[in-house]
Amino acid sequence: MIQLPASAPLFAHIPPAALPALLHCLQAVTRRYRPGQTVLWPGQQVSQVGVVLSGRAHSVKSDITGKEVTITLLVPGSSVGVLLAASGRSSPVAVRAVSDLAVLFFPADRLTGYCGRCCPAHWQLLTNYQAQLAAKAMALHDRNDCLIRPTLRQKVLTYLLQLAGRQRRADVVVPLDRAGMAQYLDADRSALSRELSRMRADGLISFHKDHFQLLGPLAGQLPDQQGR
Prior knowledge:
Keywords: DNA-binding, Transcription, Transcription regulation. This protein is an alpha+beta fold. It is 36% helix and 23% strand. The protein has helices at 19-26, 82-87, 108-112, 120-147, 152-167, 178-184, 189-201; strands at residues 29-33, 38-40, 48-54, 57-62, 68-74, 79-80, 94-97, 101-107, 171-173, 205-208, 211-214. β10 and β11 (211-214) form a beta hairpin. It starts with 18 loop residues before the first helix and ends in a 14-residue tail after the last strand. Mean pLDDT is 88; it is low at 224-228.
């Protein structure tokens, strides 16, 4: 039996008892990947929607020099291909497994198409799907908000303030390691480490591994997440 992560937004508010019939209706299958294996290739036509069951992956895009930039980190519950399946466009990014990975896939037209059973679970899935489209668009907006900042310090601060707003606290857990954080901010890893040390020396932040604390005036600058 497929065990869906409790954190999977695409299946939120669907009773566990309704899931077996729903997954059968969707013709869902589970695929497994080893670290480094490609889940989705650049240029691949996307006709399926996926949900990460276990493990981690990231979506990356190469610039004209061949340098890869991390676009998103995928963890249990994250969806794969939601925007692409809705648009009918081929993928501009690669999705690769970072660890042992299991992904539940089902055809997008089974999600959006007519369900002869007209079951409440399928209607809830469609509602969740629409919410996921909006959430994916906001995730792209948030990353772009970081990248347009002129200095690395401003990029870091924007990113940390976004996390603080979502987690509703001044001490946050960053879901990326240093290499991933550097890629996400389109920065050199060594330059990021130096800037973080300077920011700590300047009393702006404190940190240990993936735990960061906003200090001083920054702690009172949490962005308003209402209505987003």
